[in-house]
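Hey L., structure's done. Input below.
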Amino acid sequence: MKPLARPSRLAPGARVAVLAPSGPVREERLQAGLDILRGWDLDPVGAPHVLDRHGEFDYLAGTDADRAADFQAAWCDPTVDAVLCARGGYGAQRMVDLLDWDALRAAGPKVLVGYSDVTALHEAFAVRLGLATLHGPMTSAVDFLKNTRAQEHLRATLFDPESVRVIHATAGSALVPGRARGVALGGCLAILATEQGTPHARPGTRGGLLMIEDVGESAYRIDRALTQLLRTGWLDGVAGIALGSWERCGPYEELRAVFADRLGGLGVPVLEGFGFGHCDGALTIPFGVAAELDADAGTLTLEEPALR
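Output:
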């Protein structure tokens, strides 16, 4: 697995598009997030359909076509330097096939930020564009709006990426000790499992540092997703694994037993409690960047800054 092309860092005054590729967004949360971005001396612009709600499916932020059109228009707008997702939920997998990848490629590299359901876009951008992305807080999510650590780590990554070359786990410990080098990738476990067999899923994780997390999934569902990835061979050759947050997934001791059973036999370092994903103060993790994972020290050390 080779490192991907890194987009440029942001500078004061940069124009950023905020859109909803998945679930619906509350207006008051959207405005609160935009205010934070303005406080960073950015010029945030809400996409035309960012506050839409689907007429039949209340878990979608408008129609698939409109969500895809918002994304494509923002990415292809030469005045936009970054695309920030307002929230996750579900829906990115429904719109990702509607994007014109030739047009996105022609528009050149930009910063993409999001997590949860946005995992589908992280994978697609890696496979179709060879572009590094940021698994980071979404601008209308409560954990971003109310947590200074999440805000400041994303801000540092966007403006001063050299300052966050070493990312420290918030409460990390080694499930399997050791160190490993590879290229960071991953996201929401359920999305990674359900992406298998699609045109936007990478063939495997060989040479990669897999960063996974999820929310609201019971132990047997997490077991099922990991077993799916094992059975398909997707985890063959993975260099190391970091486990993020598992909010509302049941008692952690039950989950820990699943992780030890399903991942412990891979013979690679496994770090738990890293602190990215669906949790307070979520860290921003660059995908597509070469790094070293130290499960004993609880660190991910980037070989290059997340952004150029």
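The chain has a mean pLDDT of 97. The CA atoms of residues 229 and 235 lie 6 Å apart.

-- N.
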